[in-house]
Amino acid sequence: MTALLEARGITKRFGGLEALAGVSLSVRKGEIYGLIGPNGAGKTTFFNVLTGFYPPDAGEFIFDGQRLDVRAPHEVAAAGIARTFQNIRLFAHMTALENVMVGRHVRSRAGVLGAVLRDRATRAEEAAIHERALALLKYVGIEHHANNLARNLPYGDQRKLEIARALALEPRLLALDEPAAGMNATETAQLMALLERIRHDGVTLLLIEHDVRLVMGLCDRVAVLDYGKKIAEGTPSEVQADPAVIEAYLGGSIA
Ligand SMILES: Nc1ncnc2c1ncn2[C@@H]1O[C@H](COP(=O)(O)OP(=O)(O)OP(=O)(O)O)[C@@H](O)[C@H]1O
């Protein structure tokens, strides 16, 4: 399998703190790749550097064979990478449907002028965006919430809505920061089925997750970060048995 995303020596410092110390890893096309590690290990920082929130102090990302040169978060979306956040970031006062339509507009061709003039081509594009947004809500299983305000959705459904909005960008890589956080067992099981389906439909997944059952049950490979360094990489069972990993998790088993 070829690499979709390669991180080469990614380093990020905050003052004297090295949050990422030369992290290299490679996510293959079509796999579900987990990024795990204790609190403060640098996982979210890795996502933030990947998605243009912070520039790296050293290192580079190669995406689908090309150097990823992003200076702002919207550029990474155009390159084919979408993400969700640890703390849900939805437009709380917009409906579920509108939240997904906003994501979709990044891919629209009408632009600002078209939106102002609202010519026939623009109206046709709007209708298509509306259709597609509805289809995405259905895909993640929350079409019944289309006209409800995002903030009124149950927590697990807000997480699914975030995923629908990210999918509206038609990413080749979907980066999920703790997608199961705050979910109960039923919601987590539904989420796992959804993530499998997304992968099956051709999107590569990179996810940060603390839920061990989800990581072990879903990921093809995982990398373990500890104090900004990659200390292990392999299949979930390989990593689980790695002494350095057990040590990083304070001497306990991570299962
Ligand atoms: N903007 C920032 N300014 C200063 N320090 C930061 C910043 N962002 C992250 N850090 C620090 O970098 C380190 C790595 O943080 P990060 O959030 O990436 O860890 P994490 O592995 O995602 O942890 P968690 O599992 O708790 O979310 C931490 O020590 C954190 O305090």
Automatic annotation (TrEMBL):
Task: Kindly indicate whether the keyword Iron belongs to this entry.
Answer: no
Supply the InterPro entries for this chain.
AAA+_ATPase, ABC_AA/LPS_Transport, ABC_transporter-like_ATP-bd, BCA_ABC_TP_C, P-loop_NTPase
Q: Which molecular function GO terms apply here?
A: ATP binding; ATP hydrolysis activity; L-isoleucine transmembrane transporter activity; L-phenylalanine transmembrane transporter activity; L-valine transmembrane transporter activity
Q: Which residues form the signal peptide?
A: none
Question: Which part of the chain is the ABC transporter domain?
Answer: 5-252
- Please give the superkingdom of this protein's source: Bacteria
Gene Ontology terms: biological process: D-alanine transmembrane transport; L-alanine transport; L-isoleucine import across plasma membrane; L-valine import across plasma membrane
Q: Which Pfam families match?
A: ABC_tran, BCA_ABC_TP_C
Q: Please give the GO cellular component terms listed in this UniProt entry.
A: plasma membrane
Report keywords, A-Z.
ATP-binding, Nucleotide-binding, Transport
The name this protein carries in UniProt is ABC transporter ATP-binding protein
Lineage start: Bacteria, Pseudomonadati, Pseudomonadota, Hydrogenophilia, Hydrogenophilia incertae sedis
